[in-house]
Design a protein that fits this description.
The chain is α+β, with helices and mostly antiparallel strands. It is built from six helices and nine strands, in the order H-H-H-H-H-H-E-E-E-E-E-E-E-E-E.
């Protein structure tokens, strides 16, 4: 009988899959073996072999895909074209959202039944729009996401609020009905797997349901380059879950796979994101990220 707590048993299964060139299964089995016996050089070597073969196949798939779906006009000559190789290499879930994936974790997602009570937002009335105030730089940071269990940020990177962000974002200037501008410069990326990047506004660290996030598919990229995306604030995912009259607690950047699942396993994601458990397909990734909030009635003044 198979002993799941015996490292050599997992390694034996991994060798069989490696011989059959089933690299995904081999990586999973050798990953389990390494977790049980992290000092075994042979297990780690076999795991790395499986990971490298997975990355090679992903890069070959990306090179064979000719469809390009840019999300915004290029702002620099080195803007990278976006490839959607994951559409060719894996089957997406019927509906994958932060709420659907994380409903059982209670970490940052809204439970399904709670989502049902949140009304669909609509454009603000003209009477609600108050011009003036000037644009606010929400974030201007260089972030290194790493998959290391000890030091890596993995999918989630949290930041404090800018000093000029008002505690009441709805009055006297209604920033909550303004426009969010985002810019990503991908400085380093280990593979051609497509990822999605998003900004979340959190209100209360102990209340994961109190958050609103940008459209994760708006910033979608597969390789180094510059990508931009803007959207009205009222179209944030779960916009009405946040009381914009009250202070926010923090901002958070989230790195997702091509199906919108956070590439992390700290909160119950193991086996759910594409390529799990092989963090080397996604990390380390180095991103220069900027976000600017423009109040209603004003024009975007450009990047700081």
């Amino acid at each position: 009988s198979f002993n799941a707590g015996y490292a050599e048993a997992w390694a034996w299964r991994g060798r069989l899959e490696l011989e059959q060139q089933n690299y995904q299964a081999a990586a999973e089995f050798f990953g389990n073996a390494v977790n049980l016996d992290p000092g075994n050089a042979a297990y780690r070597s076999n795991l790395r072999e499986a990971q490298l073969n997975l990355q090679r196949l992903a890069e070959q798939a990306a090179a064979s895909v000719a469809v390009v779906e840019p999300t915004a006009e290029p702002q620099a000559e080195n803007v990278a074209e976006i490839s959607d190789e994951n559409d060719e290499t894996a089957t997406a879930p019927a509906e994958t959202t932060l709420a659907a994936v994380e409903a059982d974790t209670g970490v940052i997602a809204v439970a399904t039944e709670e989502l049902a009570t949140i009304p669909t937002p609509s454009p603000p009335d003209e009477a609600e729009v108050t011009a003036g105030g000037g644009q606010i730089v929400l974030l201007d940071v260089t972030v290194t996401h790493e998959g290391d269990f000890e030091s890596g940020k993995r999918a989630f990177a949290s930041f404090g609020l800018p000093s000029d962000l008002p505690s009441n974002m709805s009055a006297p200037v209604n920033y909550a009905t303004g426009t969010l501008y985002q810019r990503v410069e991908v400085l380093n990326k280990p593979s051609y797997l497509t990822v999605q990047y998003q900004l979340c506004f959190l209100q209360g660290e102990d209340s994961p349901t109190k958050q609103a996030c940008s459209d994760k598919a708006g910033l979608k990229f597969a390789q180094s380059g510059v990508y931009e995306y803007s959207q009205p604030m009222y179209l944030l995912d779960r916009y009405t879950a946040v009381d914009w009259r009250r202070s926010l607690s923090s901002l958070q950047l989230v790195l997702n796979d091509n199906f919108g699942v956070p590439v992390d396993n700290r909160f119950g994601y193991s086996g759910k994101w594409y390529g799990s458990p092989i963090f080397d397909l996604y990390y380390p990734i180095v991103i220069r990220y900027k976000a600017v909030l423009v109040p209603p009635g004003e024009s975007f003044a450009g990047w700081p």
